[in-house]
Amino acid sequence: MKTKNIKTIVFAIAVMLFAHSAVNACTGIKLKTKDGKTVSGRTLEFGIEVSTSLVAVPQNYQFVGNTDNGNGLKYKTKYSMTGIITFSDMNIADGMNSAGLSCGAFYFPNFAEYTPLTKENQSKALSPLDFNNWVLAQFATVEEVKTAIENEEIVIVPTVLEGWGATAPPFHYVVYDKSGKSIVIEPIKGKLVVYDNPIGVMTNAPTFDWHMINLRNYTNLKTENAGSMTIEGITFKQLGQGSGMNGIPGDFTPPSRFVRATAFIVTALPAETTFDAIKDVFHILNNFDIPKGFSREVVKGKIYADYTQLTCARDPQTLKYYYKTYDNQTVKEFDLSSFNGNTKEILIINTNEGKQTFEIVNKKMKPLKDYTKTK
């Protein structure tokens, strides 16, 4: 057997075992500017290296849904779109279209239950990764997506996908439109359940409605520092800044990240511009950046360390898509508004293209006497 085939089999087994663990740590957020415009972003974590590339897809590009029994839904892109694909699957797992609609797939282990594939529904069937791509290709607003799901225009069927192991990967999805509206879509007991998502936060399991109820456990949190207290004439002051947030969960489980992400976005000071808000998105998501080794699973003696492989941000106002990787923290930008949506070709670049660089400032430094003269 060829070495490449052996590596593929080992990788597939590892993904299958790892998928059932608690270590899946993607986090999504939404921010508003002072004038009410919105931007969004997310992290992508996994315990095994997931190959990712940025693509740009033109209008009128033909897609065919993938099922374990052949072709599913056939559709063309109404909008050009950009975003991240995984492995060699040409379906966007996280991205934005030319109408300013954004959509992201998030891991949803132990809870995702897709619709069984039948002869009757195969013509409208999509794989778990096809679904995200279909949303970006077809719709401009959250309301349009909700209507299509209510009308049962498609079904998501369990489909084995290249790179994702021997079973269908479990996903749920978050959608944001240019107006700032957001929904979460989850495959529950074979049906697609849609939740309004006014806060704009997204993590992983359990279900979205559970996360919203869990927020009630943290209504004591506040931005202002806690006051002092006096006992037997002795005054005890808080030790430092941030005491109002004492008790906020700091681990990387999905429930804790949901609470922490909510706290960050509701306390964030609104930015002047969407570009400033994009910078804030990266600053906030840095708090969910997992270094290699901190969060791990051990499977048959081998360590699988969950880490932040990719961080993305989306500006639906300017149609710019941003990303950085674990190995290269330089933020890259793709301007969808400058992409020729009438072309016939998909453009692609691997997200690991280029190397991390550090600016050397030795030659920029000045003697103190010269520096003070310019102040």
Key words describing this protein structure:
single chain; 375 residues; alpha+beta; eight-stranded antiparallel beta sheet; six-stranded antiparallel beta sheet; 20 strands
Describe the oligomeric state of these chains in a short phrase: single chain
- The proportion of strand residues reads 25-35%
Low-confidence stretches: 1-23
Q: How many domains, as an integer?
A: 1
> What is the radius of gyration computed over CA atoms, rounded to a whole number of angstroms?
22 Å
Helix content: 10-25%
| Alpha-beta classification | alpha+beta
Strand order of the largest sheet: 13-12-11-8-7-6-3-20
| CATH architectural name | 4-Layer Sandwich
Q: Enumerate how many helices there are, as a single number.
A: 7
**What general outline do the C-alpha atoms trace?**
globular
